[in-house]
Q: What sequence folds into this?
DNA sequence: ACCACAGCCAAACCTGATTCAGTTCAAGGA
DNA sequence: TCCTTGAACTGAATCAGGTTTGGCTGTGGT
């Protein structure tokens, strides 16, 4: 789709380690609150070594956001694939969106918290490229849901209401989970998925 | 409730002007992206004069967030007051939440984008106080909606489902509007309110 | 007439991200 | 083996912005 960094990582590359550490730090302590240098410490390299892999702290953040968006876009496609009805597609899509491991939860939170970063252009080349990429993926994800809603309306499974607002609202309902959900809390992931699915169906059902 | 700054503004105070300018800048360009000094410029004072009114840039942000939360909490209370049924209360509450001017829209966006700031403690005295205040108000708002849902369930107007998840979801649905809504766009504020109200009712109705 | 204090400023300061000017090391020829 | 190349890395500056300091000014209250 887009000419993305397919820079086949060298064997000694710490890029993945850095991303992992950054996700933990950004997710647990917040992006602005975590010192870029502390990420370096966590990985066991000097602060400036980070710049070998990422152009800046923000560039790293954008990379994390893109990666999460990518995951969520492809997971949607895979889940929906081959479902019989829009209702089944919806069930599958919700499962795909919410049935994720702890690292993805962090990534989802990071993504949500910094969505506004995608709004304004970046100075630097690579950052701007990554931003554009992320924006494209956002559009992709929104489009996925919009499409699903429209399919549902067309088939008569869903009530005929404004698809744009509906899809945005569905996305918000799903993502809102990460605001309060905590692993090992009163509600299991399973519980939440169940509740969310039913809520969404109540929203769209004809 | 809390011993808040009731520091009866002096007549020459530029506090309100600063807040207004900050809301515009933070809202349009984003908090991290706007230079604190540029807010001073906008108001027509030197950068350090800002510190006469706010302890820090973050303190100003927290103040804006608190103010928005305060508005939203009291608006809810006022709207719900004297409604006959939970359904009517819900209608009134949605109207109160969404029928706001452009400045409040900006504030709402600012609030949402920096909710995570409320999670971790602040170093400085006044910032921490303001943070606590904001947290209290968040609890207040969440409680308002939770209560409404529980009243609705008790009266039989709303279906008997998990009130916690329901109320959080409702809040998310309402606040999600600010992500895409733009004054003068295809959909009027009226349209959006109508759609949102119906969506919420579909969600909770017995 | 005087004082206290809100309101303001220029210059110094500090923190944390970023750049500079290299050094190390492993792999692939010659 | 020796040499070259480029990925991986580093300590020491640099830079940008927010914050602190110390002091000046003008106004309202007594």
A:
């Amino acid at each position: 789709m887009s000419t993305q960094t397919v820079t086949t990582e060298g064997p000694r590359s710490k890029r993945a380690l850095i991303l992992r550490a950054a996700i933990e730090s950004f997710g647990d302590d917040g992006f602005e609150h975590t010192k870029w240098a502390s990420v370096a410490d966590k990985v066991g390299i000097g602060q400036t070594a980070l710049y070998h892999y990422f152009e800046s702290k923000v560039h790293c953040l954008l990379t994390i956001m893109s990666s999460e968006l990518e995951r969520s876009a492809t997971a949607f496609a895979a889940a929906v694939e081959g479902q019989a009805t829009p209702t089944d597609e919806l069930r599958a899509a919700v499962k795909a969106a919410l049935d994720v491991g702890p690292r993805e939860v962090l990534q989802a939170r990071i993504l949500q918290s910094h969505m506004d970063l995608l709004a304004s252009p970046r100075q630097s080349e690579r950052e701007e490229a990554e931003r554009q990429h992320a924006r494209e993926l956002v559009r992709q994800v929104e489009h996925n849901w919009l499409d699903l809603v429209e399919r549902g309306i067309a088939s008569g499974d869903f009530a005929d209401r404004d698809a744009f607002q509906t899809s945005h609202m569905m996305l918000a309902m799903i993502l809102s989970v990460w605001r309060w959900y905590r692993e090992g809390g009163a509600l299991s992931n399973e519980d939440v998925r169940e509740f969310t699915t039913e809520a969404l169906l109540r929203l769209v059902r004809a």
